[in-house]
TrEMBL record:
PANTHER family: DIHYDROANTICAPSIN 7-DEHYDROGENASE (PTHR43477:SF1). This is Oxidoreductase, short chain dehydrogenase/reductase family. Belongs to the short-chain dehydrogenases/reductases (SDR) family. Keywords: Coiled coil, Oxidoreductase. GO terms for molecular function: oxidoreductase activity. The keyword Transferase does not apply. Pfam families: adh_short_C2. InterPro entries: NAD(P)-bd_dom_sf, SDR_DHRS6-like, SDR_fam. Residues 37-64 form a coiled coil.
């Protein structure tokens, strides 16, 4: 077992989760326990190589992290590899939601199983893992539990009702866990950032839609471009520092002003 602190990252094989895993190993010297479903095996293998080059350890655990059973088995594996009080950072980066409408009466109407699966993966599993980590005394002193979210809960985007509702539930879970874990010396926060280009996004959208997505974000964001997963990853270690210790139960806005110009773009499209 390593004496270094560990980061447990759900959804670590690609996208934001992989970027955070690499950043924690490279800049903070953390060992990493990553959970993934095996969908992006090539990216997972690349992450293993990159973290190996940092001299830190990566354990990749292939399982369904979004179920109660997956959380229990995953925590047991963390205990076996890292030992008690080893987890300094826990990151929930699961992107497994169903798209659809509620009462369309058409093929895109969400089935209750799709809604349940979305909530388990994108909201409830944060609680399942918190319970499993606490029950096995895996959290290191002053550990940070971090959920990831987006601005969808502030507006409306076609076909994303299940995902948006799950993200809203995740925000409430973060607040309550912050109150419960605060007396133990731990913090629980939610990091909100805008659209980033990930394999999951590229899987959902066609090349034409992706081009439109990127051009629209160039107009929306004050800086004139999309955020990157690397930028999100570089900010996560900041939240572990003493300077950020007073963030607790917070939804931290890292959107870069993404939604500031929405009304302007709608009412003045030619400007």
């Amino acid at each position: 077992m390593s004496t270094r602190p560990w980061a447990v990252i759900l959804g670590a094989s690609s996208g934001t989760g992989a970027a955070i895993a690499l950043e924690m190993a490279r800049s903070r010297g953390f060992d990493v326990f990553g959970v993934h479903r095996g969908r992006y095996l090539e990216q997972a293998a690349r992450l293993e190589q990159e973290i190996a080059q940092t001299g830190r350890r990566l354990v990749m655990h292939q399982a369904d992290a979004g179920s109660p059973e997956g959380a229990v088995k995953g925590a047991e594996a963390v205990l076996a590899h890292a030992g008690p009080r080893s987890v300094k950072l826990f990151v929930h980066s699961l992107a497994s939601g169903s798209l659809g409408r509620l009462v369309s009466g058409e093929q895109d109407q969400l089935h209750h199983r799709q809604i349940e699966r979305t909530f388990h993966a994108m909201a409830h599993s944060f609680v399942y893992w918190a319970q499993a980590l606490v029950a096995r005394d895996l959290l290191a002193p002053e550990a940070l539990l971090l959920g990831l979210t987006n601005p969808l809960t502030e507006s409306h985007l076609y076909n994303t009702v299940a995902i948006t509702a799950a993200k809203a539930a995740l925000e409430i879970y973060v607040r309550h866990l912050a109150v419960e874990l605060g007396p133990r010396g731990h913090r629980v926060n939610l990091l909100k950032f805008g659209t980033v280009m990930t394999p999951a996004v590229q899987h959902v959208y066609s090349p034409e839609a992706l081009a439109h997505l990127e051009s629209t974000h160039q107009k929306m964001n004050p800086v004139g471009r999309m955020c990157t997963v690397e930028e999100v990853a570089r900010f996560v270690p900041v939240l572990l520092g003493e300077e950020a210790a007073w963030f607790n139960g917070a939804t931290i806005d890292f959107t870069g002003g993404m939604t500031l110009r929405l009304l302007d773009l709608l009412l003045n499209p030619r400007r």
